[in-house]
Amino acid sequence: MSKLERASFGSKLGVILATAGSAVGLGNIWRFPYMTGQNGGAVFIIIYIFCILLLGIPCMISEFIIGRHGQANTARAFRKMSGGSIWSVIGYMGVLTGFLISSYYAVVSGWCLEYIWASLMGKLQGDPEYISNYFVTFSQDPVKPVFWTFLILFATYMIIAHGVRDGIERASKLMMPTLFILLLIIVAASCMLPDAQKGIEFLFKPDMSKVNGDVFLAALGQSFYSLSIAMGCICTYASYFSKQTNLAGSAIQIGIIDFLVALLAGLVIFPAAFSVGVNPDSGPSLIFITLPNVFQQAFGGISSLGYIIAVLFYILLSMAALTSLMSLHEVSTAFLEEEMGTTRKRAALAVAVCCIILGIFCSLSLGSLSGFRLFGMTLFDLFDFVTGQLFLPMVGFLTCIFLGWFVPHKIVRDEFTNMGTLDNGRLFHLYLFLVKYVCPICILFIFLHQFGLL
Ligand code: PHE
Q1: Number of neighbouring beta carbons within 10 Å of residue 342
Q2: C-alpha triplet 67, 68, 72: angle, nearest 5°
Q3: 49 alpha carbon – ligand 1 mean position (Å)
Q4: Which CATH number fits the domain that encloses residue 85?
Q5: Residue 301 Cα, ligand 1 centroid: separation in angstroms?
Q6: Rounded to a whole number, what is the largest CA-CA distance in the chain?
Q7: Range of the domain at 417
Q8: Helix (H) and strand (E) counts in the chain
Q9: What is the pLDDT of residue 387?
């Protein structure tokens, strides 16, 4: 496709909702609440806000700048901006990270579909042990999770194959507002439970005694993950932005939406959990084990509010996952389409097929293939580790260094100010300072800390 015919989002709202769709995902609804639970509640949230403002948003703007300037997939956009130098490698790493994470993200997204089905069929009713066994048996089953992974990847493929405007933008415009409304309904129900205020207090009353280095690092990692940074997604979507899109303004709006959704998810989970006396720091099993229990105990079982709340919640979770999966899928689709000179449909199909193959291995690695380990980890954990703990910080760090120190400031400024048509010159200086110094130092810090080097 030539540059003139390149696809683009059709409206400002489309830009915001599609990119927010990428950002809002399992990270907001599943990861954020349990991390808040484990890291002292409100203190974590305050630190998290600073991480979003000082690190997440500047990094997002950097990816916007590279993507829109390049008007191409992430690898080519980096190649163009770096004049084909060694820095192009960051773009390829971004594409690879996006691809690897999409297959394992698809597996977890598939679990959400199973939970819609299970809650619809009234299967998530029973004592806590039954619900816990349900999850373990399901996730280790050789067929069921693979079926759901296939289904969610098929849905993603259908959307992506329809293109940027008719696929991604349309689906995001439909799903994001629905997601928000569902979330508000469930928040209202949760906050009306007896003793809900204990959960609300936990979320909003800071307990400074809980602050330590680990809380900062957890917040930093979460802010990157939640904003979909360093996976090629933001850069790819930005290549569909128009020259009029205000990059900094959009990043701020997306950061706010992303944070609000995470906070609202907290307002679903904590009041409900506290009202039935369940500790909300149970880690990753929170959504699939603790929550079905909490819903059932708090709102009643089948043929009562608990049933409806559970169904709505898992629909909401699946939609959040799907919009993120779309952006991950688009990274590799745009790459194949442009680098191999193939059609979008073929590229999207190839990505979907590769994802399902990797997804099958990922899923089986929790059950029948759990004995097969690489570097002592199951495939599922290995993907999580390589993408989240290695590539994500590396790509993030290198992107900041590249944009802050090597790209001529004029190019960066022209993109930031839309060729001087926006009056945000002062904000630009703040942005540049953050990208040059603050972001790389902080990212380096988490990187070293997680390996016990600091
Ligand atoms: N931001 C998504 C979430 O919060 C996760 C994600 C990461 C999606 C990277 C795409 C790319 O769940």
Answers
A1: 15
A2: 60
A3: 17
A4: 1.10.4160
A5: 32
A6: 63
A7: 3-450
A8: 22, 0
A9: 82
Q: Total domain count for the chain?
A: 1
CB within 8 Å of 202: residues ≥ 6 apart:
41, 42, 270, 274, 280
Among 324, 331, 384, which residue has the most ligand 1 atoms within 8 Å of its CB, making it the best to mutate?
A: 324
Q: Which atom of ligand 1 is nearest to the CA of 327?
A: 10
Of 167, 156, 142, 178, the closest CA to residue 106 belongs to 156
Residue 340 CA to residue 448 CA, distance in Å, equals 37
Q: Which of 325, 342, 286 is nearest to 152 (CA)?
A: 325
Judged by phi (left if over 0) then psi (alpha if -120 to 50, else beta), residue 277 lies in left
- The DSSP letter of residue 391 is I
CA–CA gap between residue 377 and residue 360 (Å, rounded):
16
Q: Measured between alpha carbons, how far is 449 from 184 in angstroms, rounded to an integer?
A: 37
Q: What is the mean pLDDT of each run of 10 residues along the chain (454 residues)?
A: 73 97 95 88 94 96 98 97 94 94 93 96 88 92 96 98 98 97 95 92 88 84 92 97 97 98 95 87 81 87 82 96 98 97 97 96 90 87 82 93 96 97 95 97 87 76
8-state DSSP, 212: -
Interatomic CA distance for residues 74 and 395, integer angstroms: 12
Packing angle of the helix pair 344-364, 144-161 (nearest 10 deg): 160
pLDDT at 303 (0 to 100): 65
pLDDT score at 148: 98
Backbone angles phi, psi at 52, to 5 degrees: -65, -45
Question: What is the three-class DSSP state of 377?
Answer: strand
What is the rounded CA–CA span in Å between residue 236 and residue 132?
39
- Ligand 1 atom 9 nearest Cα: 228
Q: Which residues line ligand 1 (CB under 6 A)?
A: 22-23, 25-28, 101, 225-226, 228, 231, 233, 324, 327-328
Degrees to nearest 5, angle at CA 403 with 402 and 406: 60
